[in-house]
Amino acid sequence: MKRVLSVLLAAVLCVGMLTGCGGKPEDVSQDVYDLGIETCDVLDDYIQGKMKQNTCEEKLEEIADRARVLREDDSKTFNDGIILTYICLSPSSVSYLYFAEGETYEAENALEKLKEELNLK
């Protein structure tokens, strides 16, 4: 009986965690959302040590360039602008000019803010 209750409780908790993930915010366009997810993936790889600092910064600069192009589109929402700003600022959170290899606290802060705006928490 205890096993059945434990399995049932675990299933309910898993369903509860899945419903807590809100998905893409309504007022964020798909292209901005996708670019934000790509930025999160790059930052996460760097934080987990799967990517070197200079490689991460180069990838984030390339993503930031695409974000700058999207910012020029007048049809973007206010929240699109916020997310695009976080994306454009992300390369500075891992810049080898400011941080030694392996210092990830600024990258972690940037990732946390971006995830919050993308409703990924």
What does this entry look like structurally?
There is one protein chain. The protein is mostly helical. The chain has 5 helices and no strands. The chain has helices at 2-20, 30-47, 53-71, 78-89, 105-117. Helix 3 packs antiparallel against helix 4 and helix 4 packs antiparallel against helix 5 (105-117). The longest helix has 19 residues, at 2-20. The model is unreliable at 4-20 (pLDDT under 50).
**Termini separation (Å)?**
34 Å
The helicity comes to 55-70%
Computed over alpha carbons, the radius of gyration is: 18 Å
Strand portion, in percent? under 5%
Average pLDDT figure: 84
**Run of helices and strands:** HHHHH
Shape: globular
Q: What's the total count of β strands?
A: 0
**Helix count from the secondary structure assignment:** 5
Low-confidence residue ranges: 4-20
Q: Sheet with the most strands? A: none
Structural class: mainly alpha
What features would you highlight for this structure?
mainly alpha, globular
Short characterization:
The protein has 121 residues and is an all-alpha fold. 67% of the residues lie in helices and 0% in strands.
What is the fold's blueprint, element by element?
Elements: H1 2-20, H2 30-47, H3 53-71, H4 78-89, H5 105-117
